[in-house]
Amino acid sequence: MVVRRWSAGWAGGGWAGLGRCGLVVVVLMVGWALGIFAGRVDASVRR
Q1: CA–CA separation, 23 and 18 (whole Å)
Q2: Which of 6, 10, 14, 40 would bridge 18 by S-S if both were Cys, CB 3.0 to 4.6 A apart?
Q3: Where are the transmembrane segments (predicted)?
Q4: Is 10 within 8 Å of 17 (Cβ atoms)?
Q5: Tens of each residue's pLDDT in the chain, 47 residues
Q6: Residue 1: its pLDDT value, please?
Q7: Residue 8's pLDDT is what?
Q8: CA 5/CA 18 separation, integer angstroms
Q9: CA 38, 32, 28, 3 torsion: positive or negative?
């Protein structure tokens, strides 16, 4: 996965920065996935 390669590159920069950036990426990905899922459910319910 791209995330593993990206996190491996950040490992030399310190785990604090990696954890902070990684957390933001995870939150954004989860929110994006939930947004798509909610959008599909909402569209199917309204139709």
Answers
A1: 8
A2: 10
A3: 15-38
A4: yes
A5: 455 555 555 555 665 666 677 788 889 999 999 999 999 988 888 87
A6: 47
A7: 58
A8: 12
A9: positive
- The DSSP symbol for 11 reads G
Q: Which residue has tokens 């990696």?
A: 18
Q: What is d(CA 47, CA 42) in angstroms, rounded to the nearest whole number?
A: 9
DSSP class per residue in 15-29: HHHHHHHHHHHHHHH
Tokens 């995330």 identify what position?
Answer: 3
Domain ranges of the chain: 2-46
Q: How far apart are CA 14 and CA 7, in angstroms?
A: 11
Tokens of 37: 């899922």
